[in-house]
Amino acid sequence: MTGANTNRKDPLVAAYFSVEFDGKVVGAFRECTGLGSESQVVEYRATDKNGKAVLIREPANMKYNDIVLKRGITNDMDMWQWRKEVEEGQIDKARRSGTITLHNQKGDPIARWTFRNAWPSKLNGPTYDAKSNEVAVEELTITHEGYERVQ
Predict the structure, then answer these.
(1) Which superkingdom, per the lineage (predicted)?
(2) What is the pLDDT of residues 7-29, one digit of tens each?
(3) Is there a smaller number of Cβ atoms within 10 Å at the N or the C end of the chain?
(4) pTM of the predicted protein model
């Protein structure tokens, strides 16, 4: 071979990502899951022009998956204060838009998803185990009204 393939696109490493809410970077998360959506499926049977039975499957209601973020617990109370807004019935105050960005190894943003009207529907504190050497992890589940890959 005489040179590198310039059309090659290597897959990105999942470890380099950042999370923002209302334009502010939030903590150092170790895991982010749930970017996705699904459509319910409606099935019905019909007959074609020859009288043969056919099964028709159509998309119905769409549902966005919840986003789950995990991070090592620190003395920062931001996620707990945000969840408290929901617990106190201040849902309009709690709603935030956000961005999840995947970076390459140089730190350049390569892929980006935005989501809107997000609020914390669940917050779990760490599990404690005196025999463990693991970092204590807190987990935030975010419910939102839609996302879009913008980059």
Answers:
(1) Bacteria
(2) 777 777 777 888 988 877 676 78
(3) N
(4) 0.80
